[in-house]
Amino acid sequence: MEVYPSMFQIARDKNSTIAQNRCGNSWSVVLRRNVQDWEMGSLLELLANVEKYKTNDTCADTLLWGRNNSFTVKDCYHHICCQNQIIELWPWKLIWKTKMPTKIICFCWIAAHEACLTIDNLNKKGLELEDKCCMCQNSPETINHPLLHCAVAKDLRNMFCCIFGLEWIMPQNVKEAYASWNSWRVDKSIKKVWVMIPGVIFWGLWTERNRRCFDGISTPNHSLKASCLFLLFSWVNLTPVFSTEQFLDFVSLLVLV
Ligand SMILES: [Zn+2]
Description:
By secondary structure, this protein is mostly helical.
């Protein structure tokens, strides 16, 4: 279908089996009309290709998958990746290979695909909503605005940059943010915290955006920053913060040497 689309188009039965296209010991591809001159090359190439495969007429004609004849999601994913460079280049490990709760990982994945239900995306689906960010009230809520370009997002991101003593050039989108954040080489001791920071920023901003949109409740910026750090602490230590000393020790560990 994908390799010889012109042959697939004129196949008499597009779901036919191998056996139905065999006659004795040779191939007999069944087409619904005669092959035109310009299609002849494609047909000859197809026949030359399938000739390499040996058939066993004593076995039933069945569909098999891969080398081990069994379907696996991993094999299927690799097959799709081979055909699509974009999937191959996607930094999926930066999102899926973290210790964040599954719900947050799924959200970050959706955000990286620019599929969050922002006003911009909802309007594309046919809703007619006033396109204004409910956090800063200053800009349209485009796909990447609440997570990256909003003033609230910048303030939260700056806090993490200050902790680490870094300057972060404004990324264009969530995918780029992941790539640039993880391009910094950090010590192994803080690596597992480091990879979760984009996620905690995005999740903190998205929940704050929803609180302002749906509940009319606005969290002061300093409280939002503190809650993101508490959340990060709970993901790393798998426990909520119980004491100030414990929390301050955690923050001091984050500082890059
Ligand atoms: Zn905004």
